[in-house]
């Protein structure tokens, strides 16, 4: 691979303009595909086959017009007074017009609903009065009948009139039974009215009204155009004296690809590059190539959005990864090229060597990230696998650009990649050559064992403490409360919570099997009784604010109930309620309840993702361990690299929980309302952070291995490798943190939390794990760090990721023979056979 990349770098440098033209053509092609084929991005997530999805599919089959998406429009009077008749009529008129839009099943006039409720209450009162009057008449009739019976008995005529009196008594008894049955049904209706009292469309003070919109398509399939058409009906013709806002289910804001925060991140990255490389040309080259790669990857991904159900966050994730990784990968090659130029190697030869050494490491680093991202498809969760695939496209393009376009641009730049002062002293430094650099390494002092133990302890304890909040991790999807305070979604959510209760922002839809009957009349009668039983049992829970039966199937065997929880859609109590309902069998022998709704869907997605995470990590980590084993030819290094990732992963999750779930420092990033962590973030973070962590392990670890292969003692090689790689890894980590950190200030909490998790995870992994913990553990391991069983050493191919063989072939300096290296007095005695296997690893 190193030799191939060396030739590829030389060829790209030799045909620089051709290479540049090819990449520009690819960008034009990607842009053309975007303009011709790009479709709408989705603003919601779903997983087919979950309990919520099964309930929705049943509703579509059994009930005409149900199973579609929903939206809520919130009207409020500006002064908090009750709506006037003119305002009510105007809002009802707009609801009627919105119902005529394509893709809309129905729009409910809130005032008509409340009028129906009032009429129902009036009917109940009238019914009670009629039943009372009927009972009084029956009692009068009973008294007269009893008096007549007594008179007939006294006159000795009872036998003659007894049949007539019995018939009258039977009629009275029948009437009494009828009144009792009607009274029972009336009281059931009264109880149901009481249970649904909090399920209102107009607030108790008549200052806020909810217009409910039902769409024909499912929630995730409702087009943005349909939503905008509906919102335009209410927004473009304001009702005097009122304000209108739209809930998250209808006004889900699409995040923008580029915002000022990302631009600031790029500026910070540019400053870091200028400081490190000392020249604007050198600083601009990695940014330019990263932008080219991101442009091609993002446009390509979005051109597929018409044939794939792509979430709005998916191309942003590709942009985030492609930008950060693209800059870093280019930086590694540019840094190596600059170092070689200053050692006196010619431009063309240096480009080839940099591509064969640093470029080789870039390829393997990119491979670990690719495995981690493509592995997301193993979860079986469509939207998450697509995110991983789009991210993998961005990584693959970043790698290809790093080993082709970067060499081409370096060729055109020539010696100007170095600052003027660096070029001026090149002649003086060239005499020292690379041997001088290695000789300088001999004067480095290895760290003491006590210091190594202290550094390892500090790193582990610090990461453990930071990870503690992860024990309280709750996952879910963002709702209106997590939107910016000035957004219409947040205003709508707050108004509903204040005037109707938190649960009205995410009611549950519950289905129950009903007993049916041999005839339609008996089935109808049994369904009514069963509905009441189910409603009673649902309402009996403390966390339920309201219950209302809203429909029965044509065969009277399936009933639907709307349940308003006490807590919001993202609350722990609502999540527990979903589980409780699904375990219930309210009507004996008819099976458990089905639950759907926003909160239910979030619970299902979170649990599916949690269940898939262990398998995903096992496969991805296993494959990456194989790559690290090939790269480092060591058992110890891949194991500690992976254990270090586990520490940084849980510490990053702890930081996310502290900020986004607990609300610590939330004000600094514009987080007004803390809530559950984005449900797919733990899985996404695991894949991406693992890949990036292995990147830094490669660039730190290969420097140590390179020093060891060149003959340095094991513990001194740790210091030499760390000193050789720390500057570029530090710069690369700061750049990546800056890019990811720019997304933290996104108005969309979904994007913000992903950006924070990645930025914080890279910060901990690069600076605490790779640059503090790993060198300490490598020192403590000594020679054992490079131990490899003989049988495994014979099986593994020598991939020479650090490019030592390439350097020996293309430079005059031979590698130091293992037998000639200065022994390390501090090295511990090796186990039996260890020296042989270590020596065999130094090829």
TrEMBL record:
Compositional bias per record (Acidic residues), positions renumbered to this chain: 825-835
Keywords noted in UniProt: Cell membrane, Coiled coil, Membrane, Transmembrane, Transmembrane helix
Gene3D superfamilies per UniProt: Multidrug efflux transporter AcrB transmembrane domain
Entry-linked Pfam families: MMPL
Basic and acidic residues: compositionally biased ranges: 114-152
InterPro entries linked: Acrflvin-R, MMPL_dom, Mycobact_MmpL, SSD
SUPFAM superfamilies: Multidrug efflux transporter AcrB transmembrane domain (SSF82866)
GO cellular component: plasma membrane
Coiled-coil annotated residue ranges, if any: 158-185
PROSITE patterns reported in the protein's UniProt record: SSD
GO molecular function: transmembrane transporter activity
Residue span(s) of domain SSD: 287-412
Keyword Transmembrane helix listed: yes
Main location: membrane
Location of this chain's protein in the cell: Cell membrane
Residue spans crossing the bilayer: 20-38, 263-296, 316-334, 361-386, 392-418, 452-471, 613-632, 639-660, 680-703, 724-745
Record membrane topology: Multi-pass membrane protein
Annotated segments matching region Disordered: 96-156, 809-843
Protein name per UniProt: RND superfamily putative drug exporter
């Amino acid at each position: 691979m190193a030799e191939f990349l060396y030739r590829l770098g030389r060829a790209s440098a030799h045909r620089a303009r051709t290479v540049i033209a090819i990449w520009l053509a690819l960008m034009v092609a990607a842009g053309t595909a975007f303009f011709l084929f790009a479709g709408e991005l989705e603003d919601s997530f779903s997983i087919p086959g979950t309990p919520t999805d099964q309930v929705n599919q049943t509703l579509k089959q059994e009930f005409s017009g149900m199973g579609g998406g929903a939206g809520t429009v919130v009207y409020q009077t500006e002064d908090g007074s009750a709506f006037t008749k003119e305002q009510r009529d105007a809002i009802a008129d707009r609801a009627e017009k919105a119902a005529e839009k394509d893709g809309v099943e129905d729009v409910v006039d809130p005032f008509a609903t409340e009028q129906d409720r009032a009429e129902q209450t009036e009917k109940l009162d009238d019914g009670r009065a009629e039943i009372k009057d009927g009972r009084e008449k029956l009692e009068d009739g009973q008294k007269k009948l009893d008096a007549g019976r007594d008179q007939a008995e006294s006159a000795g005529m009872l036998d003659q009139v007894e049949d007539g009196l019995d018939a009258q008594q039977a009629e009275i008894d029948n009437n009494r039974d009828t009144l009792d049955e009607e009274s029972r049904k009336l009281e059931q209706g009264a109880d149901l009215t009481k249970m649904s009292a909090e399920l209102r469309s107009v607030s108790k003070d008549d200052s806020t009204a909810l217009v409910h919109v039902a769409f024909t398509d499912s929630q995730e399939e409702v087009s943005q155009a349909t939503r905008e058409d509906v919102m335009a009906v209410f927004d473009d013709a304001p009702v005097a004296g009122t304000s209108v806002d739209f809930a998250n289910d209808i006004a889900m804001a699409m995040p923008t690809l580029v915002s000022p925060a990302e631009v600031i991140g790029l500026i910070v990255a540019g400053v870091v590059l200028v400081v490190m490389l000392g020249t604007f040309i050198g600083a601009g080259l990695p940014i330019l190539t990263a932008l080219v790669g991101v442009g091609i990857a993002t446009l390509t991904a979005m051109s597929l959005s018409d044939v794939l159900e792509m979430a709005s966050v998916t191309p942003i994730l590709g942009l985030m990864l492609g930008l950060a990784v693209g800059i870093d990968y280019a930086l590694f090659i540019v840094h190596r090229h600059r170092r070689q130029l200053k050692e006196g190697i010619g431009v063309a030869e240096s480009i080839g060597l940099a591509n064969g050494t640093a470029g080789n490491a870039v390829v393997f680093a990119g491979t670990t990230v690719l495995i981690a991202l493509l592995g997301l498809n193993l979860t079986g969760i469509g939207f998450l696998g697509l995110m991983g695939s789009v991210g993998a496209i961005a990584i693959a393009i970043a790698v290809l650009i790093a080993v082709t376009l970067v060499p081409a641009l370096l060729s055109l730049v020539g010696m100007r990649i170095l600052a003027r002062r660096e070029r001026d002293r090149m002649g003086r430094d060239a005499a020292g050559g690379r041997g001088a650099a290695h000789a300088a390494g001999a004067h480095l002092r290895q760290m003491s064992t006590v210091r190594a133990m202290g550094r390892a302890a500090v790193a582990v304890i610090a990461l453990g403490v930071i990870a503690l909040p992860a024990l309280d991790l709750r996952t879910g999807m963002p709702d209106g409360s997590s939107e910016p305070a000035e957004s219409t979604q947040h205003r709508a959510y707050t108004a509903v919570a204040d005037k109707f209760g938190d649960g009205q922002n995410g009611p549950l839809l519950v289905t129950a099997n009903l007993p049916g009957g041999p005839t339609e009349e008996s089935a109808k009668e049994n369904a009514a009784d069963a509905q009441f039983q189910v409603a009673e049992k649902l309402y009996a829970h403390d966390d339920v604010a309201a219950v209302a039966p809203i429909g029965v199937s044509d065969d009277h065997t399936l009933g639907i109930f709307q349940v308003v929880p006490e807590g919001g859609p993202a609350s722990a109590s609502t999540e527990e309620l979903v589980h409780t309902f699904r375990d219930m069998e309210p009507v004996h022998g008819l099976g458990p309840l089905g639950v759907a709704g926003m909160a239910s869907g979030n619970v299902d997605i979170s649990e599916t993702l949690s269940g898939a995470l262990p398998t995903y990590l096992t496969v991805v980590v296993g494959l990456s361990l194989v790559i690290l084993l090939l790269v480092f030819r060591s058992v110890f290094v891949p194991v500690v690299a992976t254990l270090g990732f586990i520490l940084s992963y849980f510490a990053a999750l702890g930081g996310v929980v502290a900020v986004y779930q607990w609300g610590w420092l939330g004000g600094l990033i514009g987080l007004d309302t803390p809530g559950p962590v984005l449900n797919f973030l733990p899985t996404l973070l695991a894949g991406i952070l693992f890949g990036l962590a292995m990147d830094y392990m490669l660039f730190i670890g290969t420097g140590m291995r390179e020093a060891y292969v060149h003959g340095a003692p094991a513990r001194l090689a740790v210091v030499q490798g760390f000193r050789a790689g720390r500057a570029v890894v530090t710069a690369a980590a700061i750049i990546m943190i800056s890019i990811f950190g720019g997304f933290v200030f996104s108005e969309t909490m979904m994007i913000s939390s992903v950006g924070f998790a990645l930025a914080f995870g890279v910060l901990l992994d690069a600076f605490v794990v790779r640059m503090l913990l790993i060198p300490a553990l490598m020192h403590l391991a000594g020679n054992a760090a490079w131990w490899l069983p003989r049988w495994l050493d014979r099986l593994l191919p020598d991939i020479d990721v650090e490019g030592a063989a390439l350097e020996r072939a293309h430079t005059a300096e031979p590698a130091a023979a293992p037998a000639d290296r200065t022994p390390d007095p501090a090295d511990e005695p090796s186990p039996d056979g260890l020296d042989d296997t270590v020596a065999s690893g130094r090829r």
